[in-house]
Amino acid sequence: MKNKDLIIMEKILDYCDQIKEACDMFGNDFEKFKDSSVFSYACCMCVLQIGELCKVVSDELKNEITIIPWRSWCGIRDIFAHQYSNLDYQSAWETIQEDLPLLKENIKKALESEKQ
After folding, report:
1. Contacts 24+ apart (CB under 8 A), 72-81
2. How many Cα atoms sit within 13 Å of 23 on the Cβ side?
3. If DSSP codes are grouped into helix, strand and coil, which group holds residue 66?
4. How many alpha carbons fall within 13 Å on the CB side of residue 48?
5. Closest CA to 19 of 92, 96, 103, 110
6. Is residue 48 within 8 Å of 19, Cβ to Cβ?
7. Side-chain half-sphere CA neighbours of 96 within 13 A
8. Are 29 and 52 in contact (CB under 8 A)?
9. What pLDDT, in 10s, does the model give residues 20-78?
10. Half-sphere exposure (CA, 13 Å, Cβ side) for 16?
């Protein structure tokens, strides 16, 4: 794995942690997510950044770690960036609650296997 890809994956983990921190701060509550621009912006900006990072990982890494849906995360980024004023809060919340933990787990596994 290229050093650049290692750095990108570490940054993705950092954004995952920032989202968890925001969720913990607001009690991991969907109603607060919908009602608080601070909460929703904090989470959605991190998701957007994750998608940006997924766009710049090497093709080698994308081919090596196929369990991560790189293109889907790039697509989520595009939705969050270009359609934010029409954001479906329920879908965004599901991404944060369901897809993000899986992404984090898979990146951790990939980094751990790289260290071996």
Report:
1. 73/103, 75/51, 76/47, 76/51, 77/47, 77/48, 77/50, 77/51, 77/52, 78/51, 80/44, 80/47, 80/48, 80/51, 81/48, 81/51
2. 19
3. coil
4. 14
5. 96
6. no
7. 31
8. no
9. 999 999 999 999 999 999 999 999 999 999 999 999 999 999 999 999 999 999 988 88
10. 21
3-state DSSP percent of the chain in helix, strand and coil, to 5: 85, 0, 15
The pLDDT of residue 84 is above 80: no
Residues 6+ apart with CB under 8 A from 63: none
Specify the residue for token string 């969907």: 30
pTM (2 d.p.): 0.91
**Tokens for 69?**
């849906």
Separation CA 44–CA 46 (nearest Å):
5
Structural domain spans, the chain: 3-110
77: tokens are 């980024």
Length of the chain: 116
As a whole number of angstroms, the distance between CA 96 and CA 83 comes to: 17
